[in-house]
Design goal:
Keywords: Hydrolase. By secondary structure, this protein is of the alpha/beta class. The chain contains 13 helices and 8 strands. The radius of gyration is 18 Å and the shape is globular.
Length: 311
């Protein structure tokens, strides 16, 4: 299980959950789940990415939980969810379905938000009955559906075999990241964040990423390397918004534009100037505002229509 290290104070310190529970996936894997905010409020489900944890969403949880019910969970092997030998896109979809079943009432709709591998989780689950039962709308943050290694700009070389090979070696490294040092912060900022990201933002991300065990990071890097969820994008028929940073080296804007072109119901692409891969941390207000818009349009509006029909 991951060492739990994160900032203790400020906007990126994780709030205390209203409730903690365990969801059990199809293969028996146990997932740490938290809920925040009022029980009867509209629900938002936040799905974190590779090497992260529930702590990644601290800024969104703190803001949204005032008037939303917010569900967050640790992907298998991350945070407080034990590691599993099964690391697959289908496993990610199974896990999401288990979390939705454990936290939402039958037929209850929610806005589902995924960052990086979390977005890929939503794509992988798009055709699943549990997803279709509960998804009112989706927000895909800093993510892509295929060619992740080939399109990555982390290694500053021209596109081609050498860059792809080096990127695969960097992202798939088995080496532990060790303590969060000034050098480690500079490396993480270069690879995953925009040049203008503040020291507070970098520190928050570094603590979370460095807490992920090397074996977990390595295992999931292979899944991301071979990932092809283009078909999943076409199955994502609910209204879907896309957010990407213009300085994202991990999943550059070419992915966001490809998603927008393939999505059956794309409701907008937001390109955040100067923001890197960690968009929910680097641009928390913009990401949270987009989530609120989706809730207002596709969850609250639906509730109002049902209440009017009942009246």
């Amino acid at each position: 299980m991951t060492r739990l290290t994160h900032v203790k104070h400020g906007p990126y310190a994780p709030p205390v959950a209203v409730r903690e529970l365990a969801a059990v996936s199809a293969d028996g894997a146990r997932l740490h789940v938290e809920t925040h905010g009022p029980r009867e409020a509209p629900t938002v489900v936040l799905v974190h990415g590779w090497t992260c944890s529930t702590a990644y969403w601290a800024a969104q949880v703190r803001d949204l939980a005032v008037d939303h019910r917010v569900v967050v969970y640790d992907q298998r092997g991350h945070g407080r969810s034990p590691a599993s030998a099964a690391c697959t896109a289908d496993g990610l979809a199974d896990d999401l379905e288990a979390v939705l079943a454990a936290t939402l009432a039958p037929g209850e709709k929610a806005v589902l938000v995924g960052h990086s591998m979390g977005g890929m989780t939503l794509m992988a689950a798009a055709g699943r009955p549990g997803f279709q039962e509960h998804a009112a709308a989706v927000l895909l943050c800093s993510t892509g559906s295929s060619r992740l290694v080939a399109e990555s700009l982390v290694v500053p070389l021209r596109p081609g075999r050498l860059r792809t090979w080096l990127t695969r070696k960097v992202l798939g490294s088995r080496a532990p990241l060790g303590p969060v040092t000034p050098i480690a912060r500079r490396i993480l900022k270069y690879a995953t964040m925009g040049p203008g990201s503040s020291p507070v933002m970098v520190e928050a991300c570094a603590r979370i990423v460095h807490a992920c065990p090397a074996r977990v990071r390595h295992a999931w890097s292979h899944v991301l390397d071979s990932l092809d969820l283009d078909d999943g994008v076409r199955r994502l028929t609910v209204p879907t918004a896309v957010v990407v940073g213009t300085a994202d080296r991990m999943t550059p804007p070419v992915h966001a534009r490809a998603l927008a072109a393939a999505l059956p119901d794309c409701v907008g692409v937001s390109e955040l100037t100067g923001v890197g891969h960690m968009s929910p941390v680097e641009a928390p207000e913009a990401v949270t505002a987009r989530i609120r818009e989706l809730v207002a349009m596709y969850v609250r509006a639906g509730r109002d229509e049902l209440e009017e029909a009942g009246a």
